[in-house]
Structure formats: C-alpha cells, structure tokens
Specification:
19 strands; signal; alpha+beta
C-alpha cells in the first residue's frame, strides 16, 4: 500500500512539474495573472515557416501558462480547423513580398463543416482564413495588398491550400462601394469599405451601426481564384478621405460608441473558382501568384466556378458567413 502511495505521489509530482510554468528568464519581468504579459512571454509563441525560419504565430489572448493577457487577439484557434490545423507563420508571405505586416493585424477565421450560423445556414465545407486585417492604424487606408492564407476541404474532393498577397481593391465608404460595384468598371471597385468622417460618406453624423469589411481576392498562376471577406462591427479608427494619414478613433468621432477594439468580427468564406482540371495539384508561385516562386500551393484538379459552401431550407450559397466574437478585457488600440 505504501509503495502504491509513493508511486502515486511521484506521478502527481511529474504531472505538476510538466504543467508548471517555465522559469522566468534572467533579467526579465515576472508575468502576473490578470495583468499585461511581458514581451518575452509573447515572443515564445512562434512556429517554423516553410523556409525554416521562426515566425510569430497565433496565440490566445490570455496566455495559458501564466494567465497574463496580450493587448491584441488573433481570432479563432487555427488548431480547431478541419481544413488545416497547423499554426500559421504570421509574416512569411509579407517577408517574401517585401511588405512587412504588423503582427497585431493577423486574424484567423475557422468554419468547419456542419457548423450552423446565425442565418440558420449550415457549412457544407471546412474552411480556414488567415487574413491580415487590423483596424487600429491608418496604413490600411493606403496599402491595397494584404496577405491571405486560405484552406478548404470539401466532401466532393475539392481542396485548396494557398497563400499570397491578395488584392483588397480601393478604399472608401459603403456608399462609394455600391456606386463603383454597379458601374461595370472593375478598375475603380472599392474592396476595403471603411467608416469615414461625418459628412464624407453616406451615414451622416450618426451611423447607427459601425461596420468595416474587406474583400480579398487571390489569384494564383491562373489555376485558382479565392475570394474571402472579413469584417468588423467595431472598427477602432475612422478614415478621413481628404487625408489618409490622419488618425481618428471611431469612439471619438461618433457619439454613443466606446470601447471599440476591432474584436467583434465576421467572415465570408468563399467563393472559390477552380481552373485546374489538368493539374498539377501542387505548384509554386511567388508572393503575388506568379509561377515559379518559393510558395507551395495546393489546388485540386477541378474546373468549377464555385461550389456550394452553405445550405439553408431556401437554397444553397457558394460562400459561408460566420460571426466570430473575441472581445475581452485588455485589448488595446492596435488590434
């Protein structure tokens, strides 16, 4: 009996030791649960990219080991995705493109097959979006291309696992967007629809509700085109169309809104267009989708202008919309 008790005590000690927080590095501050994490805690969340280098990656907003929090979030846990459960290397595509992207802006959206959304639609495929979309700064008003990773797995055998710098079109208000999309001229299409200062858009001095949505288009070597849209209901900043470098916090521009942190989001997964009937399924491109670069792309052998990605009693759609809420205490103004 004493031997069993001793063995049990040793087992408990081993379990506690395995789950114990790692020692604080010399000359570094000690993390405190419920407070902001020191930088060194954040810097532990890395993954090795395709080039063998280490890159920052997804992490929960509250560090699971120390209980301290980060001032930004990255959305859904990519490890829950049935399309691709690997941790994404944030910044890999931007590095190849020579276009560094702020770490806080990387957001993950997971939609697994059979998920039901707020419109009573059911996902028919499993998809994952990793998009660079933050609302805390003004650089997004002038930068048109942003990195996108997109994964899709369908029961029909359709599959996509691609990444690159996606085109997000021009920037403007929602009323400008509707006008440009209806004029049959694709060169002036607004893909980044943002909040603008009162009197410069179509919402007047009181918008009623806030909304910012981006349309990402990624075309790779004429084999596939992925369309995905990501949106926030609480954008942190608002644009001045006359001066894109001016910083205006939305909660100061429009009365009745406070605590906006770009954390109340949704995404439109799809549509996807296949032009790869004769393969190969695996090919390589540069960061802008041109053939012959270092980025490994996977596109199944299909030739289909979209597939059904969601279903409701009144019909099918070639995209799936899903709300994703990640608001929590401690989020800052760069999220």
């Amino acid at each position: 009996m004493q031997k069993r008790t001793a063995q049990f005590s040793v087992l408990v000690w081993l379990l506690l030791a395995c789950n114990a927080p790692e020692a604080v590095p010399p000359n570094q501050p000690t993390p405190v649960a419920g407070q902001a994490c020191p930088d060194w805690v954040h810097n532990r969340h890395v993954v090795r990219g395709p080039d063998g280098e280490l890159y920052p990656t997804w992490h929960p907003q509250v560090d699971p080991e120390y209980g301290c929090y980060f001032d930004h979030d990255h959305g859904d846990d990519p490890r829950t995705s049935l399309a691709n459960p690997e941790l994404p290397p944030f910044g890999y595509v931007g590095k190849l493109a020579g276009m560094p992207e702020a770490h806080e802006g990387f957001k993950v959206f997971v939609a697994n097959r059979n998920t039901r959304n707020d419109e009573d639609r059911v996902a028919l495929t499993s998809t994952r979006i990793v998009a660079h979309m933050g609302t805390g700064g003004v650089r997004r008003y002038s930068v048109r291309q942003h990195s996108l990773m997109f994964d899709l797995v369908a029961p029909s055998g359709h599959r996509v696992s691609v990444q690159g710098m996606a085109d997000t079109g021009l920037v403007g208000s929602i009323c400008q967007r509707d006008l440009t999309l209806g004029d049959a001229d694709p060169s002036n299409d607004i893909g980044r629809t943002v909040m603008t200062l009162p009197g410069t858009g179509c919402h007047g001095n009181s918008p009623g509700s806030l909304y910012e949505i981006w349309a990402f288009r990624l075309r790779l070597a004429d084999k596939v085109e992925v369309v995905a849209s990501t949106a926030v209901f609480d954008p942190i900043t608002t644009m001045n169309p006359a001066n894109l470098s001016e910083l205006h916090y939305t909660e100061q521009v429009f009365s009745g809104f406070s605590g906006l942190r770009g954390c109340d989001r949704e995404a439109y997964h799809g549509p996807v267009y296949w032009y790869n009937r004769n393969g190969p399924e695996i090919f390589y491109t540069d960061a802008f989708g041109r053939p012959g670069g270092p980025i490994r792309q996977l596109v199944s052998r299909h030739d289909d202008v979209g597939i059904w990605m969601s279903q409701r009693s009144d019909g099918f759609q070639n995209q799936f919309k899903l709300i994703s809420k990640h608001c929590a205490p401690g989020l800052g103004l760069k999220n």
